[in-house]
Amino acid sequence: MSEKNRSRGEMVTFMLNGARVQADPGSSLLEAIRFYGLDIPTLCYDEGLTPYGACRLCVVEVGSGKREKLVASCVHPVREGLEVRTHSNRVLKTRKMILELLIARCPGSKKLQDMASELELKEIKFRPLNDDCILCGLCVRMCEEQMAARAIGFAGRGRDRYITTPFDMTSEECRKCGACMYICPACELRCQGTGAETVLCSGCINTEPVCASRYDDAMCFMVPCLSCVRTPEDVK
Amino acid sequence: MRISSVKELDELRREIQDSRDPDRPRITVCGGTGCSATGCKGVAGMLRVGLKSRELEGRVDLSVTGCHGFCECGPIVIVYPQGIFYQRVTPEDVDEIITETIEHGKPVERLLYRDPVTGEKKIHETDIPFYQKQMRLTIGNNTAIDPASISDYLATGGYSALAKVLYGMAPEAVIEEIKRSGLRGRGGGGFPTGVKWESTRNAPGDIKYVICNADEGDPGAYMDRSILEGNPHSVLEGMIIGAYAIGSHEGYVYVRNEYPLAVANTATAIQQARELGLLGEDILGSGFSFDIRINRGGGAFVCGESTALMASLEGKPGEPRAKYIHTSEKGLWDMPSNLNNVETWANVPLIINRGSQWYSRIGTESSKGTKVFSLVGKINNTGLVEVPMGITLREIIFDIGGGIPGGRRLKAVQTGGPSGGCIPEALIDLPVDYERLAEVGSMMGSGGMIVMDENTCMVDIARYFTSFLQEESCGKCVPCREGLFRLGEILTDITQGRGRMEDLPIIEDLSEMLKDASLCGLGTTAANPVMSTLNYFRDEYVAHIRDGKCPAGVCRELIAFRIDREKCTGCGVCMKNCPSGAITGEKKQTHVLNTERCTKCGICYDSCRFDAVKKE
Ligand SMILES: Cc1cc2nc3c(=O)[nH]c(=O)nc-3n(C[C@H](O)[C@H](O)[C@H](O)COP(=O)(O)O)c2cc1C
Ligand code: SF4
Ligand code: SF4
Ligand code: FES
User: Fold this and answer.
1) Cα–Cα distance list, B529 to B83, B415, B423, B484 (Å)
2) Which of A144, A186, B355, B403 lies at a 20 to 30 A Cα distance from B608?
3) What's the pTM?
């Protein structure tokens, strides 16, 4: 049955890491996957805001054979019969690479450093820059959608993109509510562990994972994973 | 005057044709991109003055047309009815053309094209090798049509496909016909056009949009520009037919602002079509209504991407968004929208007129019809070429393009624009076909074709295109923004002698991630230049990194100049030309190059007539 003629309320069935599961037809893959308790890292996503699909950390693998590809789960709708793998090697490798790029840009973000230990990222191969913003756009959407202000936005293109007020001047629209700072994943907390040379915070470093190295279609739903004996608390 | 039936359209066409005397002299001057750069305006001006002063004005027609394609030899002037093809015409030549050709019917020998191989002079366009292997279905009429004249278009059978569709074919039948023709998108992706139309038609909703993509942001490419400038009605006709098939009543042409002539000619064409009742309410009295508006794009490369283009049309920043729900369902203002490239639209009337069977016989199994390429780089005949699919790259480069200048060797050819791959010389017997080009790590893209000779450094090429794409990336998603930044950093390091062997696997990992995880087509294809050069020219990367050498002698940090004592005659030319005073020596004595002061500009190397300056 095509998505169009499905009546409201009828559930969509799809395959999540080999298990048959159901979800609301209007939901995104990320919402459905999180509903089943699986952990998907995200940076530009917030439940209260329009999904933006920019950080690409939430990628999952869908389809099979020649049509296998990665999609951003926060903006991809659930579809009948879709095969979804949340932790295949390709997914993990891609997420790590993306995080590595982000940390190389903003080594001082505690959020990124924590995520690095969760994803077992061990090395940053790029020259560190010490920027503060990862351009996730959460503040922009927060300001516009929740505060109805539109005091800030993106300017510039590509590498020169940055967040600013209209015409780079103090914005009349800004009510100094601080919602942008509240939601920012990069400036919320500073990581104290990184130095100019280390880049990765050694305080949060991991040991080798104990569990299976191939996650394709694996049925591990335990978060925190018991065999890995690691919870977010352990990591801190 | 409004035409309200097919009969009236045919009558008007006949009237125009009958009023034209086939023997009446007519001069067309190419006003395309290339010829404008070489001064066709002056030539046209002189012709106008010359005809006037000899009181020939009323008896000889003069028109400035769209691109004739052979830009290498511009400005091009063709004199009808004989069809004499003049090249590299200057304003000073005009008098002679009028006296000899118009008044006495004889060709001006020295302005004819001379075959570089046989030395033979060629009178007609069709005798010239550059044109012989081409199949100019969409740009061929450019030489004969005045883009500002709807009569010219009607005289060559224009809008007959529209009449055929409105009065003889159901929308579904039109879609079926386009599907059967095998036409695929010429804008980059190569998506089957009929299938796209069908899904837009079937998408629920009353308001649907039809859009023409004329953003053409690839550097050096001017295919779409030439069609819009030279034959705008062919694009409009295609769009009206598409709109009828899809069930749309509103269309847009999104054209980059840097193309003022394309904008002007399209606007004129729209106005003319409206006046004749070929656009607007109740087209040709059929009851079907459709109108087109022009929207000028700001000129960012990424605005050519379908979702970015639609965002830009809505007045928002031109940034791509996820396409997991297709634009054929939710496009412009969330309505079902059908976007096609200029060249795709221009193919539609041809298919309707001559039939899908005829069309699908041209080309290969999966790629039908013709494709326009802009042939640039290290090639003798730069220009715009239209070839049947399935022709080999070798035929394009050597038979049509006339080979590589200076007797140098072909090294590689990049197809598909800035994010296409570089195909090495060993593979140039490859046929032009969507799948085959993709198999070797490149793509059809929109039709850029850059030829590279042996003096091209492939690492430097990869660095160049990576940095172009990095600058053009919108910066929204991390893989593209950060990935291209780091790729650029690594490639710059390699070309400046700071590369490490460990960089190569990092390049591969970054490329993989770009392809897998980027949001839009810019990011997913951006690694093609670096991946293809790394695949086919790995030894050049290794030479840069391990031996600190640039084999092609391009990367400044890795080359050194010295003067060969045996060959130097002491003429002093290099010393005089060196801008940094790095060369010293007495007259008739061997000169010496001080490497400390040398800035490696290469001027001495180019100026020495005794081959005594060596590049290493
Ligand atoms: C970065 C980027 C730039 C593009 N630029 C153009 C362009 O300038 N012109 C064009 O027709 N298509 C361009 N495309 C392709 C369009 O997204 C779209 O696929 C095309 O216009 C569809 O028309 P077609 O099916 O007729 O090819 C571009 C795609 C990307 C990813
Ligand atoms: S300031 Fe913070 S919230 Fe805003 S884009 Fe940058 S990282 Fe995201
Ligand atoms: S791939 Fe590049 S151009 Fe496309 S959305 Fe991402 S950053 Fe923008
Ligand atoms: S959370 Fe999905 S792309 Fe950022």
Assistant:
1) 42, 10, 10, 12
2) B403
3) 0.91
